[in-house]
Amino acid sequence: MRLDVFNELPAGEAANFLRPCVDLDRWIDTLVSARPFHSLHALSSFALQHVSAFSPGEISAALAHHPRIGERAPGASREADLSRGEQASLKLDGDASERLEAANRAYEQRFNRVFLIRAAGRSTEEILAECERRLGNDEENELREVGEQLRQIAVLRLKDSVQD
């Protein structure tokens, strides 16, 4: 969608358009209320820097929509399409797939939630190294990192969905 069209949408339609980026009402409402944006850069910068950090409850709610890293998102929704595109560059031969499954299990046992990372632009090895590093985090620092990853994913999805 062109930015000028997004800027002119009724609030409810704009909110529905943004929901696949990250399904958090506060983030969506803040962006919708801040329109109009004069450029995609202004919109994405605002989305990344001017919406306060996600709360633990918001993170839990948002994670309910994310598949494990290395697994294809099911369904035909825009959100599932975006997720599949983000993970498309992962090389999941037998060894890498097994290692990602083990990393996912270790993370879920440690933090009781799915491991979330911005996959776009990262190799399988980078993702595995990040998972291993993050397993050493305490709960507070890991929540902060998960929130930051959610923000990065939301902004990437926003940039994929809106054009200047």
TrEMBL record:
What is catalyzed by this enzyme? Answer: 5-hydroxy-2-oxo-4-ureido-2,5-dihydro-1H-imidazole-5-carboxylate + H(+) = (S)-allantoin + CO2
Q: What is its EC number?
A: 4.1.1.97
The pathway noted for it is: Purine metabolism; urate degradation; (S)-allantoin from urate: step 3/3
PANTHER family xrefs: 2-OXO-4-HYDROXY-4-CARBOXY-5-UREIDOIMIDAZOLINE DECARBOXYLASE-RELATED (PTHR43466:SF1)
Q: Could you tell me which Pfam families the record lists for this protein?
A: OHCU_decarbox
Lyase found in the keyword field: yes
What biological-process GO terms show up in the record? Answer: purine nucleobase metabolic process; urate catabolic process
Q: Where is the Oxo-4-hydroxy-4-carboxy-5-ureidoimidazoline decarboxylase domain?
A: 7-159
Annotated keywords: Decarboxylase, Lyase, Purine metabolism
Q: What is this protein called?
A: 2-oxo-4-hydroxy-4-carboxy-5-ureidoimidazoline decarboxylase
Q: A GO molecular function for this record?
A: 2-oxo-4-hydroxy-4-carboxy-5-ureidoimidazoline decarboxylase activity
Entries under Gene3D superfamilies matching the protein: Oxo-4-hydroxy-4-carboxy-5-ureidoimidazoline decarboxylase
